Structure formats: C-alpha cells, structure tokens
Amino acid sequence: MSNSLGAAGELAIRSLIERAPLASSLAQAFKAKGFTLALVGGPVRDAILGRLGNDLDFTTNAHPLETKKILQSWADNVWDTGIAFGTVAGKRGDTTVEVTTYRTENYDPDSRKPEVEYGDSIDGDLSRRDFTVNSMALELTGEKPEFIDPFNGLQDLAAKILRTPVRPGDSFNDDPLRMMRAARFASQLNFEIAPEVLSSMKDLAHRISIISAERVRDEFTKIMMSANPRIGITLLVDSGLADIVLPEIPKLRLEVDEHHHHKDVYEHSITVLEQAIEHEDRLGGPNLVIRLAALLHDIGKPKTRAFIEGGGVSFHHHEVVGARLAKKRLQALRFDNDTIDAVELLTMLHLRFHGYGEGEWTDSAVRRYVRDAGEFITHLHVLTRADCTTRNKAKAARLSATYDSLEKRIEVLMEQEELSKIRPDLDGAQVMQLLNLKPSREVGQAMDFLMELRLEQGPIGEEAATKALLEWWASR
Fold it and tell me: Which of 353, 342, 228 is nearest to 286 (CA)?
C-alpha cells in the first residue's frame, strides 16, 4: 500500500536533502549490496513538519549482520547494542543513524520485550509502529524516492490527531508504554488523541505496571520538557495512567465544598508549572528540576488538609510532607540523586518567602535563606514567583514587589559578603589550634557555632571570631 510521492513526500525529500545529505549516500551503500533502505517513523514526520534533526531512523530488508557490515564501511563509528532486536547504529559527522531490519513482533502479555521476527515487507514493518503519524516511510533505494503511507498518517498529521495503525487495544496490549508515548506526542506536537485511542488508554491503563520505571521516567521527562506539558499531564490523569505512575498528581484534585473553600490544588500546580516555564530564561533555558519542583511543590496538601471551623482549610507543614513524598516518587521513577535532592530541597523551601512579610527579615534571615537554597537560589526565586497564581491583581503586584525587594537585598549582601560562599571566619585547622583539639565531634560543634555566628552577624573578622569562640568554649 504505497502512495505516490505527492507534495508531502516532495517536502520530506527536500527537507531530507537539505538537512541530512548523508542519507542518500547511506541509501546508495545499501543499494550497492542489493538491499532496500527507507527513512522511517519520526524523522519522516519531522521532515514533513520541516523540523528534521540529526538523528535518523531507517528500515531495511538486510539482516542485522549485513547492516553492520555496510555501516562499518560508511560510518565513522558503529555500535550494535540493539542487534538482538534487529537494530544497528552508526555515526558519521554530526548525523546519527539507526538501521533496523523489517520486523514483525510477538509480545508476551506480561512483558514489554518482544520476540523479534524479521519481516519481508515495509508495510508489515510500518503496521507495528505506535501511531499513524510515525508509520510513514520514504523509500530511498528505488529509481526515485517513494513516499509510503499505508495508514493515512499524512492525513492524521494534517489533522493533528494521534491514531494507531492497528486497533488501539492490540497496540497498547503489545506495548503499554505506547500509552505514555501518546501523552508525550500530544504534548510535544500539540496534537489531540483520537477518541477510540483515549478510550483504549483508559481501559488498559493498568497494563503500564509491567513497564520498567526507567522507561516510564524517560517518557514522563519528555512530557515535562515539552513545549506544553499541561496537555500530557492532563492526559496521564484523565486516562488513569497517573494513578499508577504518578498517583500524587491526581490526588491534588481535592473536593471543594461550599463551606471549606480553597484553591483547586491540581489546577494551581499546573499553572505554577506554566509560570515557572515563563521564567526559565533565568536558569539558562528549559530546566527539568524547576519543572518537577513546580509540578510537585504542593503534593503534601492532600495528606495535611484540615478543615477550619467556620469555613476555610489549612495545610500545615505540607512543604515538609511534600518534600518527603516528592523524594519517594522520584526515587520510584529512578531519577538521579542530584535531581531528587534538588526537587526535595525546593519543595521544602517553597513557602519560606511567605515569612518575609513586608520585608522585615533581618540580614541574618536573608543569609539563612541563601545558605539553605545553596546553588538552587535562582531556582527558588523562579519557583516562589511562579507560585503566585492569585487573580487579585493588587495582591499579585504586592507579592511581586516584596520579592523584588528580597532579591535586591540578597544582591547587596552577595556583593558585600560573597553570600554564595558563606563560611565561618575561622577554619577547622585554626579551631583545633586555638582549642588544642584533634579532629573530633567537638571541632564540628565549634564550626557549627562559628557558622551560626557568621549567619547572625555577617563577616566579623578573625580577631572577633577568635574571641567569641574562646568565650563559647569556656562557657561549655
């Protein structure tokens, strides 16, 4: 079922020639050995959308060992870690290619790992792909390039809709991760999901539990780092997938009754995420830590909600509970420790600013704020500003102005005292000499005393610090 080239195919070929001239030389290398080669999947979709990158996927009728031989003569380097699944990869210049032998696959219902069987046609290979917009190919080894679209992916691409090439239930049963990918592509491409696909996601959401945490994390990260994470997160929640992979998020949809008013915490959290993204330029561009912290900062609220007599709701210590929950969830999703620690810290600190009032913090309190945030002080600035979602313009302006004044004070103290490098006026060696100590717990206690002194009074110099230390030691 091949389509004639058409305008879309011509656009894809033009884009391919402009952005990836090496593809045609790779096709010639396969053709010279009597094999076919077609650009396939996401790169074809992206070529049509005019956003082709340097990672290209191909499919071929050559068996993997033949593919490896051809790539070894064509690429600068080759790796075959996926050869058991029919895939060999190579890199030439800035372009990375993955070449996979036509496949038809059988999945064990309890595992995502397929039993790979090599196919004999490209249409069969395309039928096993996740969505129709990824089931198009550009055959490059014929007399002229041929655009292949057996499942009307081009039509769905134009309509901005995600459908599966086979029945969605069959596709998702075969590989449940495709349900997460649906949410991811919807976020990345701003596409809608066909009703029958969404219905199938709801029916089969429980199947995601057979997928490894690492693969779920990778898809969730791509949703979070997309241009519009709200779309993907909403799909995860509406489909029931989030109940399994990220249960803290749907729990933010707290019931509101007429007596106990509070913000819709779920909607607030998504809005904070979107507002944090607006300020990401302060962090040098898209930033996973700030996005995760923005989404998760209030996940302690459901566990800490208490009703107040006469109306109203309190969430005492939700930042402490939330920090613990964020750490636990990110660990379960196998995020790296640096990311987990940063998100836990920001969740713990996200309310601290609200003790600032109208700016009556002492210099000591400002120093502690900077010290506790450490290298994530700018992240904390972004999160705190994003956390203001009030529709009351006067209140929002007042909060913004108050935070402006805090940032200015931090700036001044930074210049005066190098706040980012806060350390006591004496070092450990000096403390041991002054107090005639060997390395011990007492040295640590003395350093803690000197750090507190530094935070309270700012830099006071070695002489004053020595006097204070000796007085403290004598009073013990």
Answer: 228
Please check whether residue 103 is in contact with residue 135, taking contact to mean a CB–CB distance below 8 angstroms. no
Interatomic CA distance for residues 460 and 334, integer angstroms = 45
Q: Which CATH number fits domain 247-419: 1.20.1250, 1.10.3210, 2.60.220, 1.10.150?
A: 1.10.3210
- How many C-beta atoms surround the C-beta of residue 379 within 10 A? 24
Q: Where are the alpha helices (DSSP H) in 350-476?
A: 363-373, 377-386, 393-417, 428-435, 441-457, 461-474
In angstroms, the CA 324 to CA 343 distance is: 10
Domain ranges of the chain: 6-159, 167-245, 247-419, 424-474
HSE (side-chain half, CA atoms, 13 Å) at 43: 26
- For domain 6-159, the CATH class is alpha beta
Q: What is the rounded CA–CA span in Å between residue 192 and residue 229?
A: 13
Q: Which residue has the tokens 């077609």?
A: 38
Contact (Cβ atoms closer than 8 angstroms) between residue 150 and residue 2: yes
Assess contact for 174 and 107: CB atoms under 8 A.
Answer: yes
Helix (H, G, I), strand (E, B) or coil at 78: strand
Cβ neighbours around 416 below 10 Å, total: 11
Q: What is the pTM of this model?
A: 0.83
- Judge: domain 167-245, CATH 1.10.110.30: yes
Per-residue pLDDT of the chain (476 residues; tens, 9 = 90+): 444 456 766 776 677 666 666 888 999 999 999 999 999 999 999 888 878 888 999 999 999 999 999 999 999 999 999 998 899 999 998 889 999 999 875 555 665 565 667 888 899 899 989 999 999 999 999 888 888 999 999 999 999 999 999 999 999 998 999 999 999 999 999 999 999 999 999 999 999 999 999 999 999 999 999 999 999 999 999 999 999 999 999 999 875 544 445 568 999 999 999 999 999 999 999 999 999 999 999 999 988 888 877 777 778 889 999 999 999 999 999 999 999 999 999 999 999 888 777 667 888 888 888 888 989 999 999 999 999 888 888 888 888 888 898 988 888 877 776 655 677 888 889 989 989 888 888 988 988 888 888 888 888 888 988 999 899 898 88
Angle between the N-to-C axes of helices 318-332 and 288-296, in degrees from 0 to 180, rounded to the nearest 10:
130
Using alpha carbons, select from 219, 155, 225, 166 the residue that is nearest to residue 196: 166
* 428 burial type by CB count under 10 A (0-12 exposed, 13-18 middle, 19+ buried): middle
H or E, element range at 56: strand 55-60
